[in-house]
Specification:
This protein has 11 helices and 17 strands. It has 2 domains: 163 residues, 2,3-Dihydroxybiphenyl 1,2-Dioxygenase, domain 1, CATH 3.10.180; 207 residues, 2,3-Dihydroxybiphenyl 1,2-Dioxygenase, domain 1 (Roll). It is an alpha+beta fold. The structure holds fe (ii) ion. The site of fe (ii) ion (FE2) has 6 residues, from strand 10 and strand 14.
């Protein structure tokens, strides 16, 4: 099975050359229960823990793994832990998008000299097994990027194969782990992270990613304003030099109805944050079927979507000399999966409803068959669906 694109650390001269997404940290109100949720619904392995039983006195951390994805669920154990205040303000959500680099301190110094703001100065966690160096910079709102470099038993190559995460962590097991091995969900790696920022701030963060991180506007960014009579938003996609990570940035735009981005911000203390994380699969239908069976709640598309989609997508594919969509059309419809095409191929995607009671963070399941874009052709149908959900929540 394919995993994330990586670059050999030995080849990196630029300290900001990214090797991989090291992990994604969520701040949650109850990590013990959240771990069960992500294991049960999305098939993650509950792999390692740092809590009172391992000597962690201020927070409990659960490392969940699947493919080349590492989710870290953190819950505060004391009222003074910074996560306690953030959970009060924002509810559960993504705090940290951590990036593996060759030398975390050098990456941090370079980012700071490029204009980044410090979130946490470099520090090295160490035990007899090896070291993990972490250093964090602020990005939009409450979110940080943490640079991570690893040695010994904690080395990236070992972590990727199921090795130890950091000092103070211990391996644990759960009956769900065996179940998930027998019933795989097929999630492979993080395809992209979408941030919601305030109106008028998108270009600020585009420039920030260019200046601080050396990212480029991704060649397939949606260059027209995505404003319809439905929810309106504008979006630009930033990507690291090696395209290892893609970070689209959304801002709300004036529309007839309240933008989904505006709704997010209003339930997120008017603070930017990660709106959704897309997981890559190489079999959209198998993944979505398994996730539905496990009870994942996906957005429903209007019936009319499937009356139009095949003409639109297959026409685009034929015009560009590509094979048409190979997945069974009836199954795509039965599973409620969305399809879009561009000049390079097609993609299948589907979005969950928000994963917590606040209408904030959600997950996308994406499968790429040549297409490197983000499903622009689905925005109108998607906004109609989102609008119905917003209406049900009294937020339209
Ligand atoms: Fe997306």
């Amino acid at each position: 099975m394919t995993t994330a694109p990586t670059t050999s650390p030995a080849l990196t001269a630029d300290p900001l050359q990214l090797v991989d997404v090291d992990h994604v940290r969520f701040y949650v109100g109850n990590a013990k229960q959240a771990a069960y949720f992500y294991a049960h619904t999305f098939g993650f392995r509950i792999d390692q823990i740092a809590d009172l039983t391992t000597g962690s006195r201020t927070e409990a951390d659960y490392l969940l793994t699947q493919g080349n994805i590492r989710l870290l669920l953190t819950t505060p154990l004391t009222k003074d832990h910074p996560a306690a205040e953030e959970i009060k303000l924002y509810g559960d959500g993504i705090k940290e998008v951590a990036l593996t680099v060759e030398d975390a301190e050098a990456a941090y110094e370079k980012a700071i000299s490029n204009g980044a703001e410090c979130a946490q100065a470099p520090r090295t966690l160490e035990d007899e097994k090896g070291t993990v160096t972490v250093a964090s910079i602020k990005i939009y709102g409450r979110v940080i990027h943490t640079f991570v470099s690893r040695t010994g038993e904690y080395a990236y190559e070992k972590l990727r194969k199921g090795g130890m995460f950091m000092p103070t962590f211990e391996k644990i097991d759960s009956p769900l782990n065996k179940y998930n091995e027998d019933h795989p969900c097929g999630l492979m790696f993080c395809d992209h992270f979408v941030g919601n920022v305030e109106e008028g701030k998108m270009n600020h963060w585009v420039k920030w990613y260019e200046d601080v991180m050396g990212f480029k506007m991704f060649k397939h960014f949606d260059d027209h304003d995505i404003s319809t009579e439905y929810s309106a938003l504008m979006s630009k996609v930033m990507a690291s030099g090696n395209n290892m990570i893609k970070m689209p940035i959304n801002e709300p735009a004036e529309g007839l109805k309240k933008s989904q981005i505006q709704e997010y911000l209003e339930w997120h203390n008017m603070t930017p944050g990660v709106q959704h994380l897309a997981f890559r699969t190489d079999d959209e239908l198998a993944t979505v079927a398994e996730l539905r069976r496990r009870g994942v709640d996906f957005l429903a598309m209007p019936e009319t979507y499937y009356e139009l989609v095949w003409d639109r997508v297959d026409k685009m594919l034929r015009e560009n000399g590509h094979e048409v969509v190979k997945e069974d059309h009836q199954r795509v419809k039965d599973l409620g999966v969305l399809v879009d095409a561009d000049d390079e191929g097609y993609l299948l995607q589907l979005f969950t409803k928000p994963l917590q009671d606040r209408p904030t963070f959600f997950i996308e399941i994406i499968c790429r068959r040549g297409s490197q874009s983000f499903g622009k052709g689905n925005f109108k149908a998607l906004f109609e669906s989102l609008e119905l959900e917003q209406e049900r929540r009294g937020n339209l």
